[in-house]
């Protein structure tokens, strides 16, 4: 635990909290997106029926594997599945029937109720990158991530208007023991931000630590009755559910905490080298995974996920922002909606090593597809670089700025009388201009989305200021946001209790690395 | 005329042409896009009706101005419009009725019939940037464009698989006299490429030169019966049609050549500061402009265009890739389809001074919107930089590469038995991998879109090769394409005749500059 997220900032609560609030930099946070636009549907009814039928065939004939998990096998058997060894075959319709108890949307609570998010239906909740072992910035290049980097990303997310969710493993704090870093990560999300966050999934008992720390933060009674975490449970594609991930899922489901049940697929390697084949496999995997969550606890909140990319057949590297990823993301959105489940997909995906044009084309492709696919929870919405190996500070603020465009597109087109602007058209007439007219004066401040990052200065000004590219502008913005950051107020007793929990847990076992 | 487009390359035709063909670098050119995906519709029926009704009200009550054009005023009066001075007011329904004679799609012929394009319906034809007075590359920075730059862009377009159309003023050859540069530009399109191209619109007699040169290239009879040019006619928004542009339109329409009739709008300046207001104005302008083309010659091919951007209220600069531009582009697509006309919009739009991340985010936003809006002709699809002031060589090949993704998305999802890949799912089963399976071996080469530009190398290889960013990769690709370029074969007599036309025209009047 660095001093930054810990004791030195032990202001907050009581008089100190009130003083902090008075001097606080006002941060603006957008409410999660509620779409007022249609979803884009790439599959027709016939295609949907083919894929859904094939997915049922996969579950019945090929089945899925639940590895090292006798309790799961028993649940499946009792539910009517054909269990042979670790292979579970589901008669047609069984998985779909079990999925029916999962809620179509749920509220994830934040410690600041103004930051609560609703996930499902027409909403879209945006969360930062998850999982990179490296970080990069222009000054320091690419290097292993530390807990200090992690804390910076939590602060940047807290300061970002368009990110609604603090995420989970925004980068791997590799300087903290493997068996203890989840504690520091949770503590950072809980103390440095007041946005909702994710729990640990790397071992069932770390999931339990997540639940226990939430009980301190929210109160045990509140946690028993409300969802306060959404955590990422990956399926080992193809068609395999390992005991680590399922163990974490079991802990969360039993505690009524939400899980994203998501294949992690590089198309051509972990799924067939075709869109329809991949859609079939992902549908089967989601059906089995969500059904299992409902066997553990009917009604447990879950999100059906699809993390899908293609493979570059030259290098074997995953590729991003591709047409095939677009097709799969659109198609899975349709299939998941027909299941009545919240949907997770898309993100600031790119293969580039640098936050350059390649990174931005790829990312923009994916972000736009995500919006129109009806995604409800977008993990990795900012900061992803180099196929997810790297969390980039500059790209984080670039992506976070672009997320504003999704909010504005999602609003749809206002056709109220004021927006029709017939008065303006009459006032200006042929050959005039609108800059000074009454309608423009009344509306220009709110009319257009405005970037907090991009350059639109006159060429000469831009040249005089050093011909800065997007990376340079982003670097300056990262510094400013971190300089302006102030921790949201917190009761000192809560902070003390959280830190005591972390200290005790850390003292209870030796460090493990690797 | 530089030597490059002219005499030195006077091979082609007869034995020389056959020899050239044998040694030619094989270039791959994709057929224009035929969409097998739905269009995205942001406006509901009620919104569409409001905007269409308001547009009719604008035409009837406010009207449009036809400036310095008594012949146009007479045509309007005879057609039933209320003409007072230069103001033309159209009774409701008149413009829409006149638009009905415009074809819903047309074929633009290229001198190589394999490069003919169909514009309208579900097609999308891609053409390069148009109009920048400056060029930029990493080596030379930003500088005034020359005819040598122009010729390079024509060659790059010819070499680009995903560009179907050679465009028009890909950059302004500022080293050639204003009154003669159209001749050199046309000659470059005609001799250095065999893709379809645009005519000159900067004066009616330059439009006539375009027609006359086409008669040499295609034969007068062919031109009389076929469309061999699509040219860009801008409306002076708001609601004004100037005599230069209308004069060019008249020449093209009278010769059955196609025109894009397109407002050029910076929202908030040349149109109201609201999406619905801008849609109303653009609809009125398109209705009046297309109707006028049909007064000149019923059945003349036209494209209804919408070039729309927002304004940055701080700097007054136009902004690109914005949510408002997305709304307008989607909405105008719906309105233009209801008019039964081909649609032009979107492009590689960006405000950035450099081909950096900002440029790529903005561009990708616009390209994706263009595809899903049902655009039929996308001018500016590659190479646009700095609000259209600059044609960038590196960005040109970046954008041209991204256009491949539009082709693949447009194909839709294949759900034939082979694509369903059930054999692969059965062969691999839980926990396996698909790289070696029969389905992958049979399909991997064609399964995924492949970039010709982006980097997916292992990190170490990339680092050893100098940590090149997209600009560096693109610079190398520009050089390679220009090195590999070979002019398509052409009959020497045709070339001689074209050059004689240009020489005679140039000799017939003194140079004009400025």
Automatic annotation (TrEMBL), chains A, B:
Keyword Transferase tagged = yes
Matching entries from InterPro entries are given as:
MttB-like_sf, MTTB_MeTrfase
Among the record's GO biological process terms, what is one? methanogenesis
Where, if anywhere, are coiled coils annotated? none
* Keywords, in A-Z order: Methyltransferase, Transferase
A Pfam family it matches: MTTB
The Enzyme Commission number assigned here is 2.1.1.-
GO terms assigned for molecular function: methyltransferase activity
* Record family assignment: Belongs to the trimethylamine methyltransferase family.
Origin organism is Boseongicola aestuarii
Q: Where is the signal peptide?
A: none
UniProt protein name: Methyltransferase
């Amino acid at each position: 635990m660095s001093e930054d997220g810990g004791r030195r900032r032990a202001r907050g609560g009581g008089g100190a909290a009130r003083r902090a609030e008075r001097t606080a930099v006002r941060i603006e946070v957008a409410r999660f997106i509620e779409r007022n636009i249609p979803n884009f549907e790439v599959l027709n009814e016939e295609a949907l029926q083919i894929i859904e039928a094939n997915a049922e065939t996969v579950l019945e004939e090929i089945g899925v594997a639940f590895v090292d998990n006798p309790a799961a096998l028993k649940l499946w058997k009792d539910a009517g599945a054909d269990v042979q060894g670790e292979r579970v075959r589901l008669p047609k319709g069984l998985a779909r029937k079990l999925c029916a108890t999962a809620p179509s949307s749920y509220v994830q609570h934040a410690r600041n109720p103004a930051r609560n998010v609703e996930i499902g239906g027409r909403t879209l909740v945006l969360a930062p990158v998850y999982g990179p072992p490296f970080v990069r910035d222009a000054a320091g290049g690419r290097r292993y991530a530390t807990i200090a980097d992690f804390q910076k990303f939590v602060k940047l997310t807290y300061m970002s208007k368009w990110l609604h969710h603090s995420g989970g493993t925004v980068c791997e704090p590799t300087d903290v023991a493997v068996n203890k870093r989840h504690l520091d990560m949770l503590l950072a999300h809980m103390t440095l931000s007041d946005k909702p966050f994710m729990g640990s999934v790397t071992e069932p008992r770390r999931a339990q630590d997540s639940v226990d720390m939430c009980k301190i933060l929210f109160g045990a009674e509140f946690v028993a009755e409300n969802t306060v975490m959404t955590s990422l449970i990956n399926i080992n594609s193809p068609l395999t559910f390992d005991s680590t991930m399922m163990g974490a899922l079991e802990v969360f489901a039993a505690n009524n905490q939400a899980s994203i049940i998501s294949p992690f697929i590089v198309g051509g390697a972990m799924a067939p080298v075709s869109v329809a084949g991949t859609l079939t496999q992902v549908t089967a995997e989601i059906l089995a995974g969500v059904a299992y969550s409902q066997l553990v606890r009917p009604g447990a909140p879950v999100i059906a996920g699809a993390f899908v990319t293609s493979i570059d057949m030259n290098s074997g590297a995953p590729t991003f922002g591709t047409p095939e990823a677009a097709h799969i993301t659109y198609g899975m959105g349709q299939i998941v909606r027909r299941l009545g489940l919240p949907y997770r997909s898309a993100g600031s995906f790119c293969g580039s090593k640098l936050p350059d044009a390649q990174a931005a084309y790829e990312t923009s492709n994916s972000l736009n597809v995500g919006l129109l696919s009806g995604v409800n929870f977008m993990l990795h919405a900012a900061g992803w670089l180099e196929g997810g190996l790297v969390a980039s500070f500059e790209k984080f603020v670039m992506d976070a700025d672009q997320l504003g465009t999704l909010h504005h597109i999602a609003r749809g087109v206002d056709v109220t009388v004021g927006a029709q602007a017939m008065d303006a058209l009459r006032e200006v007439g042929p050959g005039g201009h609108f800059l000074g007219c009454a309608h423009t004066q009344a509306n220009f401040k709110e009319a257009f989305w405005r970037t907090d990052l991009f350059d639109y200065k006159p060429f000469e000004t831009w040249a005089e200021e050093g011909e800065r590219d997007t990376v340079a502008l982003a670097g300056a913005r990262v510094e400013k946001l971190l300089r302006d950051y102030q921790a949201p107020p917190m009761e000192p007793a809560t902070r003390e209790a959280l830190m005591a929990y972390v200290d005790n847990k850390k003292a209870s076992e030796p460090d493990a690395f690797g």
